[in-house]
Design brief:
Oligomer: single chain
Structural class: mainly beta
Strand order of the largest sheet: 3-2-4-5-6
Shape: globular
Distance between the termini: 58 Å
Number of domains: 3
Length: 272
């Protein structure tokens, strides 16, 4: 009977481990599919900052915004008092920033973004060289040792988040996660991307940064705290968009999230 019980327990443990490995494998497949999808980060092939007044766009190099496809002179974006309008095909309309409001020209899609007091046009191209040259992502072996249950301390405040443009924005931080890794007690401070966010967003850097992993740090999401706890699965830590295209405007880890340990889990670095 004892042998049967041991065998049963071993079988259950193996099934659980196999189930977790399958979960991580599926997460990785979905992650790469999202990068390669129409409109994914690998399609981001340009970023043009607007000046006040008319900003002409089209395929001709003389335009303020030179496009890889479409008419020679396609139209113009006009920036005035923090409002962006587009004139295209004889019609003019306002374009909402940082939204799904798209301007289509030939095969490319143009979106308005705002970063601080700057407004720009992000270009997405299904023929992007970053998409054509994508060679997959390397990962550390998935290990449940890097799936940790942390205690969450509610301590709402704002923390400054610097982006690669050198701009700093105060972001809502609901508290911090306390956990142990490699024998050390560590903390990570998440931010809320939206007031009604359904997930915690962690931007962190560890001792693998600039070596095995992306130098600027990595991203990690978790469910919202439940019963004072939050699960941090570092096997799902991933590279920011800036690792895949030079036309992203990624946030950088706050000083509180510089971990003094190696996190040998999740995505390894990716070169353009």
């Amino acid at each position: 009977m004892a042998r049967i019980t041991i065998a049963l327990l071993a079988g259950m443990a193996l099934a659980a481990a196999t189930g977790y490995q399958s979960e991580i494998a599926e997460w990785r497949r979905a992650r790469e599919a999202a990068l390669k999808a129409d409109g994914g980060w690998l399609s981001v092939a340009g970023l043009f900052w607007l000046h006040q007044g008319a900003n002409r766009f089209g395929k001709d190099e003389s335009n303020d915004i030179a496009l890889p496809d479409g008419p020679t002179q396609a139209g113009a974006f006009d920036l005035h008092d923090g409002k962006v309008t587009v004139t295209l095909d004889g019609a003019t309309r306002e374009v909402a920033h940082d939204s799904a409001d798209v301007v289509n020209v030939g095969r490319v899609s143009l979106f308005v973004i705002q970063r601080g007091d700057r407004y720009g046009i992000r270009l997405k191209d299904p023929g992007s060289q970053y998409l054509r040259e994508f060679h997959g992502i390397e990962y550390f072996p998935a290990s449940e040792a890097y799936r940790v249950t942390a205690r969450f301390v509610s301590e709402p405040r704002k923390i400054p988040i610097l982006n690669i443009l050198g701009q700093t924005e105060d972001s809502e931080c609901p508290g911090y996660a306390v956990f142990r890794l490699h024998g050390q007690e560590l903390r990570l401070y998440p931010i809320l991307e939206e007031p009604d966010a359904k997930e915690l967003f962690f931007i962190f850097r560890d001792q693998t940064a600039g070596k095995e992993t992306y130098g600027a740090g990595r991203f990690l999401y978790s469910d919202m705290p439940k019963n004072g706890q939050v699960v941090l699965d570092f096997n799902k830590a991933y590279n920011p968009p800036c690792a895949f295209t030079p036309y992203a405007t990624c946030p950088l880890p706050p000083k509180e999230n510089h971990l003094a340990v190696r996190v040998d889990a999740g995505e390894k670095k990716y070169g353009h």
